[in-house]
Amino acid sequence: MTLHLRIWRQAHAQASGRFVSYTVKDLSPDMSFLEMLDVLNEELTKKGEAPVEFDSDCREGICGTCGFVIDGVAHGPRRGRTVCQLYLRDFRDGQSVTLEPFRAKAFPVIQDLVVDRSAFERIIAAGGYISVDTGSAPDANSILIPKEVAEGAFDAAACIGCGACVAACPNASASLFVSAKIAHLALLPQGQPERHRRVLKMVAQMDRENFGNCSNHGECEAVCPKNISIKQIALMRREYLTEIWKNFRAL
Amino acid sequence: MTTLAASPKLISKAPSGPIESRWTRHVDALKLINPTNKRKFTILVVGTGLAGASAAASLAELGYHVKTFCLQDSPRRAHSIAAQGGINAAKNYRNDGDSVWRLFYDTIKGGDFRAREANVYRLAELSVHIIDQCVAQGVPFAREYGGLLDNRSFGGAQVSRTFYARGQTGQQLLLGAYSAMMRQVEAGRVELYPRREMLDLVLIHNQARGIICRNLVTGQLEAYVGDAVVLCTGGYGNAYFLATYAKNSNATAIWRCYKRGALFADPCFTQIHPTCIPVTGDYQSKLTLMSESLRNDGRVWVPKKKGDTRPPNEIPEDERDYYLERKYPGYGNLAPRDISSRAAKAVCDERRGVGASGKAVYLDFSDTIREKGLDYIKEQYGNLFEMYQHITAEDPYRVPMRIYPAVHYTMGGLWVDYNLMSTIPGLFVLGEANFSDHGANRLGASALMQGLADGYFIIPYTIGDYLADASLPKVKPDQREFRETQAEVEAKLKRLLAIQGDKTLLEFHRELGLLLWDYVGMARNAQGLQQAIEKIRHLRQEFWQNVKIPGSNDMLNKSLEMAGRVADFLELGELMALDALQREESCGAHFREEYQTPDGEALRNDERFSHVAAWEYAGEDQPPELHKEPLVFEFVKPTVRSYK
Ligand SMILES: Cc1cc2nc3c(=O)[nH]c(=O)nc-3n(C[C@H](O)[C@H](O)[C@H](O)COP(=O)(O)OP(=O)(O)OC[C@H]3O[C@@H](n4cnc5c(N)ncnc54)[C@H](O)[C@@H]3O)c2cc1C
Ligand code: SF4
Ligand code: FES
């Protein structure tokens, strides 16, 4: 099959970018979308042109490295999948497809489809953990966790940190990502002691990082490859407001 | 057995005496560093997978100043994230007779008696603490309704000791270790250097004192100074091009340390995993694993008849060959990986393979679905089934999966002593990057265990012993040794870019991969290995004359990153073949066709090969020098491995 691609090309962070069109032929529908880009890059290399830079690593939907926008949708047309989990059978022969990087103030473009998501790291460093030094843990079965609770925490912990939620949000909010971590830890008994300071610190860091506010558009949930639910954002809000209220009353 | 004297280069420092107390006594004798002095030491941890993240967190908690480096844009994306099935621990929560001893025994036997007893015992002993640590961090392991931890079985074991978090155990364990490390980032004790590639090791007075990295965004070379370097850079299975590894996994860090004098142990011990999604086309960029845990509930079979092209549901029960259950009734579908992989190859070689290529066998869940219901399967393996469906566009709830072996793990790696230090003082190697505790074949769910044991519970003790005694004069990143090493790195990058030939990197890498798969894969023989060595040399020469690498050195340039890695694979590949050639026996995953039992099982030669083969670099185009560390078995008598 054949695909007509329009791809955002940008030489470096300061350069102004533009769309460039390419046609890739003789593709197999069983090929993954990134393998199709590999083919394009082989052709460009042979012609002496600069290959299209994009990030990927595991190519099976778990590391969160890949991600760009396909025809206006972060991670492309298939719900619940990352870019690396798309196959050409998800597209039509002869289709025109537009690729551009995740766009958000907090995610500056590095080159072509590669962006800088290090803001996520700083949010996690602000409190996305349980403080337990190596060696100090009690026997694993001394903490009983009902199956439903463990499963609920898992649903939130499944976030791969890809940033699609930010790219999809009209306000470029990081709320889905941040709430997933807060919910994961707030739902577990081990997460209780730091529950209060965690939410305050992580939200404060999110606000410092140029992300926008959440105004309930729900676009994040729709593109999230791990189906993280916006109910986690509601949970984060509740946690946050409770803390703010407590602090206010303590004044 | 003749006793082989250890090469003076390979002093294992493994303690003697009763095996149960070796590690405790060893720890008691290690030197300590006073807490306030720890701050004065800078440790460079290269790699942030399970081994690296756990080491960085634990060392920083002790007070060391840690710098970590990784290729990805975030440390959380290391290849460990993809591990699916689970992690072993001798908790005996199931009351099924498990114990530290049994895990030790299974691992020694699983590795076909090619690992150090003292190390393996320590691994089994520490396994129980790993689970405690991870649960305390908030890792959402699978639970039973009563709130206790659940377990499942993995290959090569008759007990149920594998802890798991759906099919995403590696992700959850790594996020736990990463969060512990990020806590230390906030505390100011860990500095992160993502999108950095270590391209060389800097030695001063023969001690590891720093690294040269390429900043993968700007292309700048950067020098970092440390008092010790801890390599946690993962395995080298991508030498085969098609493998279950993440695309960025590579051998460059360990290979360049090898060329600086660290010995490389057992490079030919590579694991080929029996349950992966088969190759579909020559455009393919990687292979995807279907976790071994599936073999708990799936039955492996092929048609009895050769060339049978009927769809699986039209092949009646009595015309199916459940060959693992037939050949290995004691373990059935849970026979160890090396054995299951070879058995799959054997039936496909007999033209009984299935699918379009004939290079696949069925993994069939219909019996379990009938007995335990669809919901059970969904809960246990939902995400794996979904992944299979995404890739193949077939529904494994209705038709059996098609699977075939693929390169998955490397047991070989840099040689380390009991303290995890390589033959270069101050260079420690953890996780899959070292030659580790798995001998000639790794059992499932034991790599996560080893990486975390190394990082959480071994290096925090052993590194102090080195630092306490080493003389470590102050060094600066602009002193001669750093400048010289950096100049060599730069020259190599420029040389690569200057070739401008007409074959792409992918073409070279694919070609190398096929050579290794055909000659240094599941079955090897002397003639093939000799040919492979010739062919790889040829290919390497051609590479340095004819590769075409686009772009320049002063920018983000993934082709240039890959070029260095492929260049290293082209050297390492030859060493893998050489190692396989000199090991004139079959053991574990290393199967030499000349050495097999009448029924086709691996035939070890303990008389001649009960040792670790460690190779010393001798200069470009010089044959490397072989050193041997004898393996002595005091507690588990080497026997012919039987899983019947
Ligand atoms: C698909 C799959 C499933 C698996 N499932 C299981 C399982 O269920 N149970 C189990 O026990 N094992 C499993 N394994 C094996 C296990 O995942 C790995 O062996 C283990 O995670 C390796 O961890 P590591 O920390 O040693 O290295 P890795 O996780 O590979 O990390 C390597 C790190 O080094 C960095 N790095 C590499 N080179 C450089 C360089 N030159 N400069 C700077 N940084 C560098 C990388 O960026 C990365 O951070 C699985 C493996 C695969 C492929
Ligand atoms: S919440 Fe979903 S979209 Fe956002 S980072 Fe996590 S996995 Fe990606
Ligand atoms: S490359 Fe890992 S999620 Fe896509």
The CATH superfamily of the largest domain in chain A is known as Alpha-helical ferredoxin
Relative strand content of chain B: 5-15%
What's the count of strands of chain B?
A: 19
**DSSP strand count of chain A:** 7
The ordered H/E elements of chain A are EEHEEEEEHHHHHHH
> Considering the protein shown, what is the CATH homologous superfamily of the domain at 273-407 in chain B?
Succinate dehydrogenase/fumarate reductase flavoprotein, catalytic domain
The top-level CATH class of the domain at 273-407 in chain B is: Alpha Beta
In short:
The complex is a heterodimer of chains A (251) and B (644). Chain A is α+β, with helices and mostly antiparallel strands and 251 residues long.
Describe what you observe in this structure:
The complex is a heterodimer of chains A (251) and B (644). By secondary structure, chain A is α+β, with helices and mostly antiparallel strands. Chain A has 2 domains: 3-100, Beta-grasp domain (Ubiquitin-like (UB roll)), CATH 3.10.20.30; 118-250, Orthogonal Bundle (Fumarate Reductase Iron-sulfur Protein, Chain B, domain 2). Chain A contains 8 helices and 7 strands. A 5-stranded mixed beta sheet of chain A has the order 2-1-5-3-4. In chain A, a hairpin with a 2-residue loop joins strand 6 and strand 7 (114-115). The longest helix of chain A has 20 residues, at 231-250. Among the domains of chain B are: 273-407, Flavocytochrome C3, Chain A, domain 1 (Alpha-Beta Complex), CATH 3.90.700; 486-605, Fumarate reductase/succinate dehydrogenase flavoprotein-like, C-terminal domain (Methane Monooxygenase Hydroxylase, Chain G, domain 1). Chain B has 17 helices and 19 strands. Chain B has helices spanning 22-29, 35-38, 50-62, 100-110, 117-137, 169-186, 252-258, 323-327, 337-349, 366-372, 374-392, 447-469, 480-499, 505-519, 526-546, 558-582, 606-609, and strands spanning 42-46, 65-69, 87-88, 162-163, 190-193, 196-204, 207-215, 221-225, 228-231, 264-265, 270-276, 299-303, 320-321, 361-364, 401-410, 413-414, 427-429, 611-616, 625-630. Chain B is globular. Chain B starts with 21 loop residues before the first helix and ends in a 14-residue tail after the last strand. At the A-B interface, helix 1, helix 2 and helix 3 of A face helix 3, helix 5, helix 6, helix 11 and helix 12 of B. The site of flavin-adenine dinucleotide (FAD) has 46 residues of chain B, from helix 3, helix 6, strand 6, helix 7 and strand 15.
